[in-house]
Amino acid sequence: MRVLVVGNGGREHALAWKISQSRRLKRLWIAPGNAGTALEGENVNILAEDIAGLVRFAKKESVDLVVVGPELPLTMGLVDALEKEKIRVFGPSRAAAQLEGSKVTCKQTLRRADVPTAEYQVFQDADSATRYVKARFPGERDRTPLVVKADGLASGKGVIVCSRREQVLEAIDRMGRKLEFGKASLPMIIEERLEGQEVSVLAITDGRTILPLPAAQDHKAAYDGDQGPNTGGMGAYSPTPIIDEELLETVEDKILVPTIHTMKRSRKPFRGVLYAGLMLTANGPKVLEYNVRFGDPECQPILMRLKSDLLDILEATVDGRLGDIDAPEWDTRASICVVMASAGYPGEYTKGHEITGLEAAAAIPDVKVFHAGTSFQDGKVVTAGGRVLGVTALGESLALAKLNAYKAVKEIRWPGAWCRKDISDKAAAHVLAAGELGR
Ligand code: AMP
Ligand code: GLY
Fold this sequence. Notes:
CATH architecture of the largest domain: 2-Layer Sandwich
Distance between the termini: 49 Å
Radius of gyration: 21 Å
Strand content: 25-35%
Bound molecules: adenosine monophosphate, glycine
Number of domains: 3
CATH class of the largest domain: Alpha Beta
CATH topology of the largest domain: D-amino Acid Aminotransferase, Chain A, domain 1
Shape: globular
């Protein structure tokens, strides 16, 4: 098979790496890729948002399967454009991708599907939103647990979690008057703030059959102990004891199945990866958001544990016969991915620093260094983004996987490189707490 992976992050490197192991692969391209994907296949200099360019390339090279990593080309209609040319592609259509592309569409779908989620209201302008908040929380300046969300894609920045009334009013102002997220700012959603542990469940679906992937947990905050600003994700691990079989079944029955059904009934059948961001509240799991693609970095530890041929799974999804293939085989060992970032990330950072020690890290058994923000400069691998590498390792237990990953991290250097030191500690804390409760 001739395969094209679209994107240039750690997720796409993991996809390319796994696909490159397929016995059925003939040729692999990554557009635009990074310095790491160049080791697994051939990088092509076409941006992930260049829909026409990607379609032209896929036609010219008679690509058999396109695998789309990031959300932006999905919401822009890359899948529809390729399908029009009879090119097979893994990922949801533009209409189905609105589950992530429009938070209002997502909430309406959840409501229609009767899936548990936070209570919400939609506002077209700042004045009506302000009036609503003042009327609903009269005089309660210090306790206004609300979340203000911009409708469109805003690189994870369009969600403002508030405790006090002035924070809510400021958030409304930023979205409704200053239009801080451009066209994505309006309409805005104001919803109740949920409390609990946050987890994600990812599943591959062909629109009928749902194949939940092993549970993984992301670490969104920049610094240890979940302190600091939100990032794209500073690390992830799999499996997580926070999601047990029973919870996974509940999520499948009460959340994934009704969502997929509703999408089908609304003539927007969903095919690809459905990623549910959940809050485990006292009243059970509730959906915070849907993403329509693999999580980054969750994808890295998950694919590290996949023993089956990924191409078989992706192809069966595209062809609508996910129910006919054998269940994938997963490594029983644990895996963790530690993101190494540029100094200053998630704020401003500089690029172009030479990265050393990659070979020494790669020589450690059961370690794979996935590249995210890297490129080549004068034959050297240099930094080219905020999240630079996803150092991923397997181990007999999470603790051993962690040891292995940080051993590899120690080998890798560039000026200002840093990472969180506590990836996967949430799992240990959870097990400890459950033990103390006698569960
Ligand atoms: P989202 O992009 O909708 O997942 O929001 C980003 C982050 O905001 C989530 O990962 C949560 O940490 C937080 N968040 C979103 N909605 C809520 C909510 N209703 N209650 C509490 N936290 C929320
Ligand atoms: N790691 C979170 C995301 O991919 O959205």
